[in-house]
Design goal:
Order of helices and strands: HHHHH
Distance between the termini: 31 Å
Low-confidence stretches: none
Helix content: over 70%
Radius of gyration: 17 Å
Shape: globular
């Protein structure tokens, strides 16, 4: 039962891998750059997780040591999921042409959200 959470994590990774690569190609990310974008996630985790762990261990909030970081992380994840999901629409509203093969504003929003 303790490791049952791994099912949800693996399901989430499977969805992410199967749906985001075609979405990247839809907004015009070159195929050879897609693998570099996938590297951003583990590399950012390699840097960010120890920093968050350091500050959460020293947190003296009345809500506890971990809860403010969990709430802040959940809020940020909700924002970036919105940015990733609507990157094409945000790109069109900021100047990308609808029929263009490459949408630079949408790619920038997608990479920032990712």
């Amino acid at each position: 039962m303790v490791s049952a959470i791994a099912i949800g994590i693996q399901f989430g990774w499977a969805l992410q891998l199967s749906l985001l690569t075609p979405y990247m190609q839809l907004i015009g990310v070159p195929h050879q750059w897609a693998s570099f974008i996938w590297l951003f996630d583990p590399l950012s985790g390699l840097v960010v997780q120890p920093i968050v762990g350091y500050y959460s261990n020293r947190c003296t909030s009345c809500f506890g040591r971990r809860r403010p970081f969990i709430a802040g992380g959940a809020f940020l994840v909700a924002i970036v999921v919105f940015l990733i999901g609507y990157a094409a629409n945000i790109g069109v509203s900021t100047g990308d042409k609808i029929g263009a093969p490459r949408k630079p504003c949408a790619i920038a929003v997608f990479v920032f959200g990712f």
